[in-house]
Amino acid sequence: IKKILLVDDDVGLAAALTTAARIYLAKNELPQAESFAQAALKISEGIARDPTQSADVGEAALALAALQQAKGDQVAARANADRAVTALTNGLGDKHATTREATALQAALH
Length: 110
Fold this sequence. Notes:
By secondary structure, the protein is mainly α. It is built from five helices and no strands.
């Protein structure tokens, strides 16, 4: 039971970090946004059964891709946008708003 509770805590922490990354990106505070986005992705990957099927991984990768685009790192942004689209499409479906957001970013980067 303790392991299940820890995973639940990690899911909540990853979601909070992804949200913090988006907020700091919107405030153009890129170093903080990057730190939060990378931490969210690391946690999400660590608890996902299959990262290519995880909406949590996809959302964290999307936040990181948006940050990398803002920093001008198109290569890294493209790779994380591609990863986000795959994970979000598999986890949420191609019609979900977050998947469409990732798909739009991906298109802008290719």
